[in-house]
Write a structure and sequence with these properties.
With 83 residues, the chain is mainly alpha-helical. The protein contains 4 helices and no strands. It has helices at 2-14, 16-23, 27-36, 63-69. The longest helix has 13 residues, at 2-14. The termini are far apart.
Amino acid sequence: MRFRLSLIRYAQKHGVTKAAGRYRVNRQFIYRWMKRYDGSRESLSYRSRRPPQSSQPAYPGGVETHLRHAPQEPKRRALSPSG
């Protein structure tokens, strides 16, 4: 978090291009963190990218019921020796 904070402060003072060269990061990285920065250190912490969990089960009747009623793949016929 200290790295990102010092990076943003340097970018605000000297510009994004100079900050990218000095800290050896790309400009998109700086713009992303500047957009998120609201003045607090907490805004620079990483956020989880995990999707929110649903309170309802994915398969209401259970996985076994779901698999029992799932569409089956059609059976393939074996080719005859003549072609």
